[in-house]
């Protein structure tokens, strides 16, 4: 269950990430960076695909992505990227700043629970990814950017 302990930091980050599964509805990602898996504080991100039943209480996500290493702290920052790779499906990024990594995921129709192995992993020293912003074209090239 998500948010199952007072120290998991469930909901530290919440982001509307666009339509990452091409079902016509926007999706939501919720970070839990202090969640402890079997290998330490790996962190995880819960994904809730829209629209769901408005009268239904949601008790579990549609799928999760969890950190791969102890102290990964996946989910400190999350951002939607619009269509970052220009394939017609929205994309998103999630960070592990303690490990100096940002994972970029390209949208697809078949999501499943798994370990963080983004389609593109960007790494720089110094708490890289402590905050993220994306989905806007800041360079003027008609492609969404990640900052």
Structural class: mainly beta
Taking all Cα atoms into account, the compactness measure Rg is 15 Å
Strand arrangement, major sheet? 1-2-3-4-8
Element order: H for helix, E for strand:
EEEEEEEEEEE
Task: Please count the helical segments.
Answer: 0
Q: Overall mean pLDDT score?
A: 87
Low-pLDDT ranges? none
Helix content: under 10%
Query: Roughly how many Å apart are the termini?
Result: 32 Å
Our estimate of the beta-strand percent is 25-35%
Oligomer: single chain
* Quantity of strands, as a count: 11
Describe the structure in your own words.
With 147 residues, the chain is an all-beta fold. Helix content is 0%, strand content 31%. The chain has no helices and 11 strands. It has strands spanning 14-18, 27-32, 44-49, 63-66, 78-80, 92-96, 101-105, 114-115, 120-123, 134-136, 145-146. It has a 5-stranded mixed sheet, with no helix packed on it. It has a 4-stranded antiparallel sheet with strand order 5-6-7-9, with no helix packed on it. A hairpin with an 8-residue loop joins strand 10 and strand 11 (145-146). It is globular. The chain starts with 13 loop residues before the first strand and ends with a strand. The model has no long low-confidence stretch (mean pLDDT 87).
